[in-house]
Design goal:
The structure holds two protein chains of two kinds. Chain A contains five helices and two strands; from the N terminus they run ααββααα. By secondary structure, chain A is an all-alpha fold. Chain A is elongated, with a radius of gyration of 16 Å. By secondary structure, chain B is of the alpha+beta class. Helix content of chain B is 52%, strand content 12%. Chain B contains nine helices and six strands, in the order H-H-E-E-E-H-E-H-H-H-H-H-E-E-H. Chains A and B meet through helix 2, strand 1, helix 4 and helix 5 of A and helix 1, helix 2 and helix 6 of B.
Chain lengths: 141, 250
């Protein structure tokens, strides 16, 4: 995949992820009921794992997706590295939270799983972009 | 004497490959470090003692699996045409009631209720304390959504110490969310309804007439016949099964 296509993929996936996280943030602060096909969304969103360092995890997710989206707007090496670092760390954290849902809370939040799926694709695209950026450097002098 | 090596010419703006790989490794290390910090903070938050239930709410999926597909109406679980009735007087804070719910009821529900041979009735009491009253109100509110038994089972699976104040607003919200999902708000809003107050008073009066002296207090009998109390240890599944079989065969 070319750098241009990877940038577009990263941007679209980050925007999709931000939309999902944004919905969860909106529901959180307006106390609106979540549409939830698995019926475990409220349980997960109201569990103690739904907050981290005083902030809802959905807010952290939104910030992460927006950061990666911003990184897709730039072509610099730093932008690529920042996007990849955020996407990969977010993927690892999301995997941990999925395990928490299955083991500790014993409820599944469909929105979180959807966000995880988007994040997995986003991390893959970001990693490919990072790999392509490192290969663009020339042979050792 | 130091040797001076002339640098090899390379195109402007192109970095040595070793430099690129080093930076990639640094990015991966940074990502791993950030993830470790987030996970560590979440694990610490999960161990916090502020919320009541030890790890959010446990047993949501197992309760759903146990009760899904079984008809409910009001306080009754199971087919209204079931030939045998089991009526339980219980307090949601009572640990022996939790033993009965956790050790015995799952098998009875699977073998007898799901197959249409037994119906269960939950007569909730709140004699232990304020936490009992709050949980019982939520259970009755859930009866309007045909999910009283989900609240009862989940409350037992997440039972706290008697009268420790464990039935907080947060706990009730967790239970409501675990049971009703997106309809949790409606369930929470219904808790103070006058009909619930009336229902709790009626069950307390009934328990007094029946002669309930402790919980769980269990009555068993064929549909249409007078029920009789059974004196069986809450975890003695085999004796419960024998009593039900006897009723089914009689």
């Amino acid at each position: 995949l070319s750098e241009g296509r990877l940038r577009i993929a990263v941007g679209l996936l980050a925007a999709l992820g931000a939309a999902i996280a944004g919905y969860l943030v909106l529901a959180r602060y307006t106390h609106a009921s979540l549409y939830c096909p698995t019926s475990g969304c409220e349980t997960v969103q109201s569990s103690r794992y739904a907050e981290l360092l005083g902030a809802p995890v959905s807010v952290l997710g939104l910030v992460a997706f927006l950061t990666v989206f911003a990184s897709a707007l730039g072509r610099s090496r730093v932008a690529v590295e920042l996007g990849a670092a955020v996407a990969l760390s977010a993927l690892a954290f999301a995997a941990y939270l999925l395990a928490v849902q299955l083991v500790a809370i014993q409820a599944i939040c469909a929105w979180c799983v959807a966000s995880d799926a988007v994040l997995a694709l986003l991390a893959a695209a970001s990693a490919l972009r990072l790999g392509a950026a490192s290969r663009r450097v020339g042979p050792r002098g | 004497m130091a040797r001076v090596v002339a640098p090899t010419a390379r195109p402007a703006g192109v970095l040595p490959s070793g430099f690129g790989i080093g930076r990639t490794r640094a990015v991966l290390l940074g990502a791993a470090l950030l993830a470790a910090i987030l996970i560590g903070a979440s694990v610490l938050a999960g161990r916090s003692s502020t919320p009541v239930a030890p790890e959010g709410l446990v047993g949501v999926e197992s309760t759903r699996a146990l009760l899904d597909g079984i008809p409910q109406q009001g306080i009754t679980l199971g087919s209204p045409d079931a030939p045998v009735r089991l009526v339980e007087y219980a307090d949601l804070q009572c640990p022996y009631c939790a033993d009965f719910a956790n050790a015995t009821l799952p098998t009875l529900i699977e073998k007898y209720v799901r197959t249409g041979r037994l119906s269960l009735e939950f007569r909730g009491l709140a004699f232990i304390g304020a936490d009992s009253q709050r949980l019982l109100r939520l259970a009755h509110a859930a009866s309007a959504q045909a999910s009283l038994w989900q609240v009862v089972e989940l409350a037992y699976r997440n039972q706290g110490a008697e009268n420790s104040g464990w039935a907080t607003e947060g706990m009730l919200e967790l239970l409501a969310g675990g049971v009703a999902g997106s309809r949790a708000d409606a369930l929470l809003a219904a808790q103070q309804a006058p009909w619930i107050t009336k229902r709790i008073a009626q069950d307390a009066a009934l328990a007094e007439r029946v002669g309930v002296t402790g919980t769980p207090y269990i009555l068993l009998g064929r549909k249409g016949d007078p029920l009789h109390p059974v004196q069986i240890a809450p975890t003695d599944l085999a004796t419960f099964e024998a009593a039900i079989q006897q009723e089914l065969g009689s």
